[in-house]
Design goal:
Length: 219
């Protein structure tokens, strides 16, 4: 109740101010009109590429990954400190490249070990997403995000005999810059895990460290 009263009193004072002071307040980059409002919708596109594949949960080394996604987000609540948002990402294209080792018989009793890369293509959806924008009424906003969903590939990944259908989850963070027209650019770091959840007997899984960037509009 104290927060509501504290918000109403300054608003009443501003309504009684002169036109000049109202214009000045609207142009203030720290004002709520310059940031993310509660119940706003975010429409955007983003893409990422991996730079490292650790083996913490997943056990597949030397993996390479890239994707592009479309995002819809809904700001569920917002105050001066943080904006809480539900996100849904549609992923029309993902590329997972895995190094495969094969033995080739070159002559009777002689085999050659060769290393090649095989790329699998997938698409999917991450319908469960939670995003927190800190300092949402400011131009530069740190954010933290986590999502969960699935990807379906054109072949078994990361190895033959695993599965085409894989679950995904990730944790990410970065910076989102929102201008006065509520157009936003973001850049960040993402840690992503891909695995079939043991609905196949073979489940090595893949861990990925990624950098990503994107553009969105808040309406």
């Amino acid at each position: 109740m104290a927060i509501v009263i504290g918000a109403i009193v300054p608003a009443t004072v501003l309504c009684q101010a002169s036109n000049t002071s109202s214009v000045t307040k609207q142009n203030d980059p720290g004002d709520a009109t310059s940031g993310i409002r509660g119940h706003a919708n975010e429409l955007g596109v983003w893409g990422g590429i991996s730079f490292h594949s650790p083996t913490l949960l997943g056990k597949t080394p030397d993996a390479r990954f890239g994707n592009i996604a479309l995002r819809y987000g809904r700001v569920l609540a917002s105050n001066e400190s943080v904006a809480f948002q539900w996100t849904i990402d549609a992923v029309p294209l993902s590329i997972l490249s895995i190094k495969r080792l094969t033995f080739t018989q070159t002559s009777p009793g002689t085999f050659t070990l060769t290393s090649t890369r095989d790329s699998a293509y997938g698409a999917g959806l991450s319908p469960i997403g939670l995003k927190f924008n800190f300092r949402p009424q400011r131009r530069v906003q740190p954010f933290a995000n986590t999502t969960g969903g699935f990807l379906f590939f054109n072949e078994d990944v990361p190895v033959p005999g695993a599965a085409r259908f894989n679950f995904t989850f990730d944790f990410s963070g970065g910076i989102q810059v929102v201008n006065s027209s509520r157009r936003a650019f973001m850049v960040g770091y993402k840690y992503q895990h891909i695995s079939n959840g043991y609905h196949s007997p073979i489940n090595p899984g893949v861990d990925l460290q990624m950098i990503f960037a994107g553009f969105s509009i808040f309406r």
